[in-house]
Write a structure and sequence with these properties.
Layout: E1 3-8, H1 21-32, E2 36-41, H2 49-59, E3 63-67, H3 84-96, E4 102-105, H4 107-111, H5 113-120, E5 124-126, H6 131-143, E6 150-151, H7 169-178, E7 182-184, E8 187-188, H8 199-203, E9 208-209, H9 212-223, E10 229-232, H10 243-253, E11 259-264, H11 271-279, E12 282-290, H12 294-299, H13 306-318, E13 323-329, H14 336-347, E14 353-358, E15 360-361, H15 367-374, E16 389-390, H16 397-408, H17 418-430
Parallel strand pairs: 1-2, 1-3, 3-4, 4-5, 5-6, 7-10, 10-11, 11-12, 12-13, 13-14
Antiparallel strand pairs: 8-9, 15-16
Helix pairs in contact: 1-6, 2-3, 9-10, 10-11, 14-16
C-alpha cells in the first residue's frame, strides 16, 4: 500500500483557528483502505515552507494530497489582498520538487477545479466529497490504470456512511490551545435554494444525516482530549426533519457536558425547543439572516421575511441565547431605499451581534451568477479565480458603504466593515478569551458592562 502525505493549506485564524476536519476525514478513509497517512497542517507547523520541505524529506511519501478550504475571505473590502489560493500554489511548488503526484481537493478547490488545478500546478483534482474518490484514485494510480485528471461530482455519501475524521491528537491539542473550539459535522446537504449559495453544489439538496448516537460518540471521544466547546459545521443545523433536536436529546440522555454553537436559519421555533437546545449545551447561534428587508430577502430566494427574523431573535433573547446575524447589503433588488430600511431593521434587533457584508462573492453555477450575466455585470466566461462581487445595478457602491458606516458607527455590536469587527474580536483574544468570541459583545438587559472594555481574569473562557 502507499504512503500519502496530506496537507491542509488553510492558515486563516479569523475569527479563530479551525481544525482541518476535511483532511482528517480523507485520512481516515485512506487508512481504512490500508494506506499509511501523514497529516500535515500548515497553520499548526508555523506556515513554513522550509519546515514542509523537511517533513517531506523525512516522510518520503508516494503521493501528496492538498486540501484547499477557501479561495479568499469573501470580504469585498479586503479579499483582493487575502487570496488564499496563492498560498496553496506555494505549497504545491514545494511538493512538485519531490516529483510525486499531487492531488488537490477541498471545498474551495471544488468551486473552481479546472482554474485552480491549472493555477497551482497539481496533477489531479477531486471535486466534491473526496473520501471514496481519493481512495479510488490512489488505487488506480497504484495499479497503473489511466485516470482522468479531475474526478467530478457523484451522488453524495449516505448519512450513515459518512466517515468519522481520523482525529490527529497533536492537531487537536494545538487547536484546543489556540481557540478552544472543535468542529463537528452532523449532516451534509442543504434543503434551501439561496440565490448565491454554493452548498447545494458542494453537498447537494438532499439532507443526509448522521446517526445521532455516532455524532455523540464522536463528541465523547473528543471530550477525552479536553474538547468541551463544539461548533456544528452543518450548512444549516435546524433542519426541517428535526435531526438537530434528536441530537440535543441524545446529548442530554448521555449527560455529555459541552457548550456548542451552530449555523441556524431564522424560522418558526418553539420555546420548548429552545429550552431543549439550551439543556443540551447550546451556547450561541450564528444566524443566516442574509438580507435585511423583505424585498432583498425575496430576491435572494429566502423562505422567510424580516418579521420572521425579528420573532426568531426575540425568542432567543427571551432564552438568553446569544445570536450573531450575518447579513449582506448590495445584493439583487437592493436600492438606497432598501439599504436605509435594512439599517433600521438591523438596528431594531435587540441583544444580538450583526456581521454586515458589502456585496456578494459570485460563483459560477449559482442563480445569482446567471442573473449577473443577464444584467451585464459580468461576462459569462469571466474567471472567478479573482474575486468578483455582485452589487445591485440600482445603487452606488460607495454611497451604500458610506451609509452603512454611518448607520452602524455608534453600535459596537454591529461589526462593519468586517475587518474592523475582527479587530474588536482580536482585543478580546488579548484579554485571554477563547471560543467564538462574538457572544461576549452581547449585553443582555441585566448585564451592565462589556467584557472587551476592560481586562479580564477569565483567561480560560471557552467562548
Amino acid at each position: 500500500m502507499a504512503s500519502i502525505f496530506l496537507i491542509s493549506t488553510n492558515t486563516n485564524v479569523e475569527p479563530y483557528p479551525v481544525y482541518p476536519i476535511g483532511m482528517s476525514v480523507i485520512a481516515g478513509s485512506l487508512e481504512n483502505a490500508g494506506h499509511k497517512v501523514i497529516q500535515y497542517d500548515m497553520l499548526a507547523t508555523g506556515n513554513s515552507l522550509e519546515h514542509l520541505r523537511s517533513a517531506l524529506t523525512e516522510a518520503a511519501p508516494d503521493y501528496a494530497g492538498i486540501s484547499i478550504r477557501n479561495v479568499d475571505n469573501v470580504d469585498s473590502f479586503t479579499s483582493h489582498t487575502n487570496k488564499y489560493i496563492h498560498k496553496a500554489k506555494l505549497v504545491v511548488d514545494v511538493l512538485k520538487e519531490t516529483g510525486i503526484p499531487v492531488i488537490a481537493g477541498g471545498a474551495g478547490f471544488s468551486l473552481l477545479p479546472e482554474k485552480i488545478l491549472t493555477y497551482i500546478g497539481a496533477d489531479y483534482g477531486i471535486v466534491g466529497e473526496g473520501e471514496r474518490k481519493m481512495a479510488h484514485l490512489i488505487a488506480r494510480l497504484e495499479q497503473g490504470i489511466p485516470v482522468q485528471q479531475i474526478y467530478g461530482k457523484e451522488e453524495g455519501i449516505p448519512g450513515n456512511e459518512i466517515p468519522v475524521p481520523r482525529w490527529e491528537p497533536e492537531l487537536l491539542r494545538y487547536y484546543l490551545n489556540q481557540s478552544g473550539v472543535i468542529n463537528v459535522q452532523t449532516k451534509r446537504g442543504c434543503e434551501h435554494r439561496c440565490a448565491y449559495c454554493t452548498y447545494p453544489f458542494l453537498e447537494g439538496h438532499r439532507m443526509r444525516v448522521r446517526p445521532v448516537h455516532e455524532v455523540v460518540d464522536e463528541i465523547e471521544m473528543l471530550g477525552s482530549f479536553g474538547a468541551d466547546n463544539i461548533f456544528f459545521t452543518d450548512s444549516v443545523l435546524n433542519d426541517r426533519g428535526g435531526h438537530y433536536l434528536q441530537l440535543a436529546e441524545e446529548i442530554i440522555r448521555r449527560k455529555v457536558e459541552i457548550s456548542w454553537c451552530g449555523f441556524f436559519q431564522p424560522g418558526p421555533i418553539e420555546h420548548d425547543e429552545l429550552e431543549l437546545l439550551k439543556r443540551s449545551g447550546l451556547q450561541a447561534m450564528e444566524v443566516g439572516t442574509d438580507a435585511t428587508s423583505d424585498t432583498t430577502l425575496k430576491e435572494l430566494h429566502k423562505s422567510f421575511d424580516f418579521d420572521t427574523v425579528m420573532e426568531f431573535n426575540k425568542k432567543c433573547v427571551a432564552q438568553r441565547i446569544p445570536c450573531a446575524h450575518f447579513v449582506i447589503f448590495g445584493g439583487p433588488g437592493e436600492t438606497m431605499d432598501t439599504v436605509h430600511e435594512g439599517i433600521k431593521n438591523i438596528n431594531s434587533l435587540k441583544n444580538c451581534v450583526v456581521f454586515p457584508f458589502s456585496g456578494i462573492r459570485l460563483h459560477a453555477g449559482t442563480p445569482l451568477f446567471t442573473r449577473a450575466v443577464k444584467e451585464g455585470l459580468i461576462p459569462p466566461d469571466q474567471s472567478l479565480l479573482e474575486p468578483f462581487y455582485y452589487f445591485s445595478p440600482a445603487l452606488d457602491r460607495a454611497e451604500m458603504n458610506a451609509a452603512l458606516i454611518q448607520g452602524f458607527k455608534k453600535r459596537r455590536d454591529r461589526l462593519f466593515p468586517p475587518d474592523e469587527g475582527q479587530q474588536r474580536i482580536n482585543i478580546m483574544k488579548k484579554f485571554g478569551f477563547r471560543g467564538i468570541l462574538w457572544d461576549q459583545l452581547i449585553k443582555f438587559d441585566d448585564q451592565p458592562s462589556d467584557p472587551a472594555d476592560k481586562p479580564t481574569t477569565n483567561s480560560t473562557h471557552a467562548g
